[in-house]
Design brief:
Layout: H1 2-11, E1 16-20, H2 29-44, E2 48-51, H3 57-68, E3 73-78, H4 82-85, E4 93-97, H5 100-109, E5 113-116, H6 121-136, E6 143-146, H7 153-164, H8 170-173, E7 176-179, H9 182-199
Length: 206
């Protein structure tokens, strides 16, 4: 009963989801399927999408599904990347910004939580930055990743090792949640919305 109440309270604040993911679809169909599945989950929950603004790779797949499903899509992209990451027709609202720093700040400011799909250096950097911001109390928004077929196992093992060796506190390990699919992760984030607020400091910059 208490968990249901917590989830209901979280959903009243949990409206805009920032998705970090690759500008490539990867070599395996499971990554493409996970992106499509996440888009469908956001549509079913009536959640809006904030993302990096590209129309290629996993970014493009998620954004097209949400847009076709009637959700609001906000893409934030540096002007220098527009020719590289936007091909063909764009969807939703596209907001050009000056650089990568402004892109990340705007994505965070316009979102209620963060989800990472598989991706490369950029995805990893974005994910770790919002985890660090939560650790420092810059925001109290939940952070999760979809661990598609064990893609993020090595990262999760690294974080657990950092906890074991005293570089990350056990409570702050809980900032990041993971699940093998979108449905399970969104459920965890709904409850985690309240939990993150309790384990982070209370500086509100975003």
């Amino acid at each position: 009963m208490e968990e249901n109440k917590a989830a209901a309270k979280a959903m009243s604040r949990f409206k805009r989801v920032c998705v970090f993911c690759g500008s490539s679809t990867g070599k395996r169909n499971c990554y493409r399927d996970a992106a499509l599945d996440l888009g469908q989950e956001l549509v079913s929950k009536k959640l809006d999408l904030v993302y990096g603004g590209g129309s290629v790779g996993l970014m493009g797949l998620v954004s097209h599904v949400v847009h076709r499903g009637g959700g609001h899509v906000l893409g934030i992209i540096p002007k220098t990347l527009m020719n590289k990451e936007i091909t063909g027709e764009t969807v939703g609202e596209v907001k050009p910004v000056a650089d990568m720093h402004q892109r990340k700040a705007e994505m965070a400011r316009n979102s209620d939580c963060f989800i990472a799909l598989p991706g490369g250096y950029g995805t990893l950097e974005e994910l770790l930055e919002v985890i660090t911001w939560a650790q420092l109390g810059i925001h109290d928004k939940p952070v999760g990743l979809i661990n598609v077929d064990g893609y993020y196992n090595s990262l999760l093992n690294f974080i657990d090792k950092a906890v074991d060796d005293g570089f990350i506190s056990p409570s702050q390990r809980s900032i990041l949640v993971s699940a093998p699919n979108a449905k399970e992760l969104v459920q965890k984030l709904e409850v985690g919305f309240l939990f993150v607020s309790r384990i982070c400091f209370r500086f509100k910059y975003l």
